[in-house]
Design goal:
This protein has about 350 residues and is an alpha/beta fold.
Length: about 350
């Protein structure tokens, strides 16, 4: 398979915008910058940010053991996913494959980009039906989205199934690893060298505790990274976001401690939920949330709202009838939730 054949012709032909910071990349010490029409009076953000976010990438590169040249950053993973659509999917011609129940953005972005959606529902254990997916694919199927650990089901997909899909799908396979930092599975980003058609996305929004700054991460081959670089807005990650991300990534032990605490609280939460009379099933979780089946999801959702607790009602998702999704909070928050649920028994 040639990645070049998967890229949209318009993107291949594009001459990218060249920003002032792209054109001069030398040492910034002791230089006088009169190239970008900025206001010269220092206030911390009067200069344009680094369009290649080199300091953030170098920290990520160390933490994740992925070379910097295989990393691209975006304004949240939502921007990264949108850029992937725009690089590979020709509007009103190509299609993508998504595996419901899963993250809603894949189909929203398909609709925005006028790209058709093929859906192959996960099996009863929320695992991908590999043969059915490969059969569903046609020559216009450019992207296959695998969300692992999957939102809202919380489980990881079997490595064997993922590997077969990456090997046999004749387009780009995007593995959304938004929850990988909570998982026991290894990131697929460590195997980019084996699979030229693989894109792995991650985010600082979940385990890293930085949903507010909007920083999404894309790991892929240099070839794919350079395609997406051509179409990304030049200054897509702002200066404040870069500064905050750097500060957070420099204290990575704190994130690891918080993840460990969330995971141990998750186990307690699962036990407590299991003891609630109207909870009939708790699905295995490899993430920082729990999917549970109850007697009447909409009724229980509304009752919790009345008690000031907001969870996610997933009952309308395929295969998730009467399912509620609980994010793991602090010890105190989880106790408030369990107390409220007990009062509803
Ligand atoms: C939360 C989440 C994201 C994160 O998106 P950002 O735009 O980076 O905040 C991505 N994928 C899935 C499946 C998620 O649940």
């Amino acid at each position: 398979m040639s990645i070049q054949d998967l890229i949209r012709p318009t993107v291949k032909a594009l001459k990218p915008y060249s920003s002032a910071r792209d054109e001069y990349q030398g040492n910034s010490d002791a230089m006088v910058f009169l190239d970008a029409n900025e206001n010269p009076f220092e206030n911390g953000v009067n200069r344009y940010p680094d369009p290649q976010q080199r300091t953030v990438k170098s920290l990520l590169s160390k933490i994740k053991s992925i070379p910097q040249k295989n990393i691209l950053l975006g304004n949240g993973s939502d921007e990264v996913l949108d850029l992937i659509y725009r690089a590979f999917c020709e509007p009103n011609q190509d299609n993508i494959i998504t595996l419901p129940p899963t993250y809603g953005m894949y189909s929203v972005l398909a609709n925005i980009n006028a790209v058709a959606i093929k859906r192959v529902q996960l099996d009863e254990n929320f695992q991908p039906k590999v043969d059915a997916i490969l059969e569903e694919a046609d020559s216009n199927s450019k992207l296959l989205f695998l969300c692992s650990p999957n939102n809202p089901t919380a489980n990881s997909f079997k490595a064997k199934s993922i590997e077969r899909l990456v090997r046999e799908f004749k387009g780009i396979v995007v593995i959304d690893e938004a929850y990988i930092d909570f998982s026991n599975e290894e990131s697929w980003a460590s195997r980019l060298n084996e699979f030229p058609n693989l894109i792995v996305t991650q985010t600082l929004s979940k385990a890293y505790g930085m949903a507010g700054i909007r920083l999404g991460i894309c790991y892929a081959s240099e070839e794919i990274i350079s395609v997406i670089n051509r179409i990304k807005p030049p200054y897509n990650v702002n200066e404040l976001t870069q500064q905050k991300a750097i500060a957070q990534l420099e204290q990575n032990e704190l994130t690891q401690q918080q993840v460990a605490s969330i995971l141990s609280e998750r186990d307690i939460l699962v036990e407590e939920l299991d003891a609630i009379s109207f909870v009939s099933k708790i699905y295995p979780t490899d993430a920082n949330f729990v999917l549970a089946k109850v007697d009447d999801a909409t009724k229980r959702y509304n009752e919790l709202i009345e008690k000031g607790i907001v969870i996610r009602n997933r009952t309308t998702q395929p295969g998730c009838e009467n399912c509620l999704r609980f994010t793991v909070g602090t010890k105190e928050e989880n106790e408030v939730l369990i107390k409220a649920l007990k009062a509803l028994e």
